[in-house]
Design goal:
With 311 residues, the protein is of the alpha/beta class. The chain is built from seven helices and 17 strands. The strands form four sheets. Strands 1, 2, 3, 4, 5, 6 and 17 form a seven-stranded mixed beta sheet that branches. The protein has a five-stranded parallel beta sheet with strand order 8-15-9-10-11, covered by helices on one side.
Length: 311
């Protein structure tokens, strides 16, 4: 019997493992099919994590996390989790090979990933001028012009954020109307550094060996094209959270989730199911920053320790 199962090996999962094992839980198993590290290992540069003064790649940044977290007894099981259920106060971790592990408590930190727009040039220049995080990468385009693609709250909020750093922000959306909150839309429309281009779509993201050099857009109302020379393109067309393994046989979710599938938690990372905690990008209102995910993981672990001691 596993005392604590951690699903996901990104910053939230690894931090949870560190705090849980150092906190005295003896049998803690982290389920991650590949090597731990998470989505951040694909980032080319990280410079905004407190205490890390050098600019490092995501792979370099996460390498010491693994060594530190496993030092205190965290176990890594390289298996794919297909479903998580709960029966008689015990969680059942169903694996893709058909086997089942049992656990007294679970921290779910499977993360998620930004949706891609399926644009020409998107795959080629992903991470080389194309970003899905203004907080992470906006500083690299200080006093430059950038493009933001999207029409929801995230796209508009990030466009406003980028306008404080960049000389100009081109906000491109396929419809004339935005899906964001009215106050956010008004904030964007009143911002002199944001140029709204609607209705329009990006036909192609162009670039060279150094990265993005511009975008070719199509104005769908006039059927005309326009090329904008920029080195940065920020895409905000949605986010997929990895909560499929929480779906039960009857189609319901193991715990309460919002309309987008993100897990609802309280400030202690507790879900609606006793003994199940969620941390990182998979929870509602996640900031999607490494430092925040790490904090979530630590909080969830401390609560899991209290839960197991009480039980």
């Amino acid at each position: 019997m596993i005392d604590l199962a951690i699903i996901g090996g990104g910053p939230a999962g690894l931090s949870a493992g560190l705090y849980a094992t150092r906190g005295g839980i003896k049998n803690v198993v982290l389920f991650e099919k590949g090597m731990p590290g998470g989505q951040i290992t694909g980032s080319s540069e990280i410079e905004n994590y407190p205490g890390v003064k050098d600019i490092v790649s995501g792979m370099e940044f996460m390498e010491p996390w693994q060594e530190q977290c496993f030092r205190f007894g965290l176990q890594h099981k390289m298996s794919e989790v297909s479903q998580i259920t709960k029966q008689d106060k015990i969680f059942r971790i169903h694996l893709s090979d058909g086997s089942v592990d049992e656990a007294r408590a679970v921290i779910f930190a499977a993360g998620g990933s930004p949706k891609r727009a399926n644009l020409k040039g998107e795959s080629e220049f992903w991470g080389r001028g194309i970003s899905t995080c203004a907080t992470c990468d906006g500083f690299f385009y200080k006093d430059q012009e950038v493009v933001v693609l999207g029409g929801g709250d995230t796209a508009l909020e990030e466009a406003v954020y980028l306008s404080r750093i960049c000389s100009k922000v081109y906000l491109i959306h396929r419809r004339n109307e935005f899906r964001a909150a009215p106050s956010t839309i008004e904030h964007v429309r009143s911002n002199s550094k944001i140029e709204i281009i609607t209705p329009a779509v990006i036909e192609e993201i162009k670039g060279d060996k150094a990265g993005v050099t511009g975008v070719l857009i199509k104005h769908t109302d006039s059927n005309t094209t326009q090329e904008i020379n920029v080195m940065g393109v920020f895409i905000f067309v949605g986010y997929d959270v990895n909560t499929a393994t929480l779906k039960q046989d009857d189609g319901s979710m193991l715990c309460e989730c919002d309309e987008w599938g993100s897990i609802k938690v309280d400030l202690s990372m507790r879900t609606s199911v006793s003994g199940l905690f969620a941390a990182g990008d998979v929870r509602t209102q996640a900031a999607k920053q490494v430092v925040c995910a790490a904090g979530d993981g630590a909080t969830a672990a401390l609560q899991a320790i209290a839960y197991l001691e009480h039980k």
